[in-house]
Amino acid sequence: MESFSLILAIVVVTALAFDFTNGFHDTANAMATTISTGALKPKVAVAMSAVLNLVGAFLSVEVANTISKGLVDETGIRPEVIFAALVGAILWNLLTWLVGLPSSSSHALMGGLIGATIASAGTGAVHGDVLVTKVLLPAVAAPIVAGVAAMLATRLSYTLGRKADGKAAAKGYRTGQIASAGLVSLAHGTNDAQKTMGIITLALVAGGAVAPDSDPPTWVILSAGLAIALGTYIGGWRIIRTMGKGLTELEPQQGFSAQTSAATAILASSHLGFSLSTTHVVSGSVMGAGLGRKGGVVRWSTATRMFVAWGLTLPAAALVGALAESVTGLGDWGTGVVAVFLIASSAAIWKISRREVVDASNVNEHEEPAGVVTTAIAVVAPPPAGQLVDDLTATIASPAPEPVAPAAPPAAAV
Amino acid sequence: MKIDWAALGSVFGVSLVVTVGLVALFTLGVMGLSRQERATAQGGSAGLAVTGAYACFAACAAAVAYGISLIVA
């Protein structure tokens, strides 16, 4: 451990921060439908998910051992490159959280790694075909696979279960949904917590603190598991709201079908050798469940914004990663500049998020339609809405639609 | 560039079949329980429906257990 340098410590801390944002970002995957259908109270849901994530983190180290091998050449990777990659991934995760869009944390991480590697070692060090087969194609396939399954399952459950009503049915769907959400959480813990373990281990190897080809040390497993569990428990409520209420309105049967399809697709994909992003799978299954119910609607405007965010995830994280890497390349002070920049932007994003707080208390109030209605009322009938508007924008004379703007996220343009 | 269509196809097939199967089983179970609920409300009983319901739930529980074993493995 004598070579445990400052940069290595920075990388480890940043990796844990990424792990935190990862848990925070992906709580929605396991728990959004459970929360929106009322199967579990919001706080209970995130607590359960956090515990299962933590448990999942200890179950195996397979994923951790494979994360670094394949996408980029690990020879000649310096800790600074990993640091730059993490900066890109964290910032993208926070930005998408701010606008409440589910996007893949793994894609953000890969994007950051790719960008930083290109900036450091040139385009040759990135395996382009791996990029297409492991990143682009799965992103298109995942929502289709999970969506079709969820749609058919929903349709079937409504046809079959026409006679299923009353307390017993409600209780049944509730239990089923909790069970499948638990499976998703557990799978998430084994996958995503281990990605961070893999990254930290890669950094330790690159920095010479542990021997190449060694398993993650115990303190790495423990801290990564705790970071992701903590992030999960804090809960990315904005994303939960989009996933649970923003894409479509879910009834308990739909929630159950969506969650079952998601759990099945995630497990099938990770064990049949075609890995799909959890986020993409869950989003797809939620939309499929929305389409499967007669009279169910999918809000395609929200879905489109989400697809755009998916498309941007990799290049955006790559760009930030590349920029961060070129700055760290200037020397130790460059690394310091990037660290300060990361902290400052995270703080800024958090600050902006406080303008419109989303937490356990209002996670199930979907504001988008309300926002539209409010805007319409404000435009059509200024007098009744005037008071509120005047209060909020005291110095602005015209009833500007500013106060309602955050409800229909304008930052969706990203 | 080699795209593993076979793996993608099997993920698609397995997801579809397992999801639809599980949801169908579970819905049958829920149906059984609500039939019993109705029967009890009317003073009768529905032994067969309940047995069937628990058989369905047991199959679902087995699937969940298999899922956990896949995660742990």
From TrEMBL, chain A:
TM ranges: 44-61, 81-101, 107-128, 135-153, 219-240, 307-324, 330-350
One Pfam family per UniProt: PHO4
Compartments, record wording: Membrane
GO molecular function: phosphate transmembrane transporter activity
Membrane topology (UniProt): Multi-pass membrane protein
Record keywords: Membrane, Phosphate transport, Transmembrane, Transmembrane helix, Transport
Plastid in keyword set: no
Alphabetical GO biological process terms: phosphate ion transmembrane transport
Keyword Transport in annotation: yes
GO cellular component: membrane
Cleavable signal peptide: none
Family the UniProt entry places it in: Belongs to the inorganic phosphate transporter (PiT) (TC 2.A.20) family.
Protein name: Phosphate transporter
Protein source organism: Streptomyces humidus
Organismal lineage: Bacteria, Bacillati, Actinomycetota, Actinomycetes, Kitasatosporales
Automatic annotation (TrEMBL), chain B:
Transmembrane segments: 6-34, 46-72
Keywords, comma-separated and alphabetical: Membrane, Transmembrane, Transmembrane helix
Full protein name: Uncharacterized protein
Organism: Streptomyces humidus
